[in-house]
Amino acid sequence: xxxxxxxxxxxxxxxxxxxxxxxxxxxxxxxxxxxxxxxxxxxxxxxxxxxxxxx
Length: 55
Description:
Radius of gyration: 11 Å
Shape: globular
Order of helices and strands: HHHH
Mean pLDDT: 90
């Protein structure tokens, strides 16, 4: 399922800063393990899926 969210809305839902999410998107920094877990839970997918290791 696809969720149409802005960076601002996503940051509010998962409790992370807009700046952090923006830097991940632009490749300026890597996401930390605990942040991956937050995103995986929010999107109801595995961390492996977020990392592109499973379809």
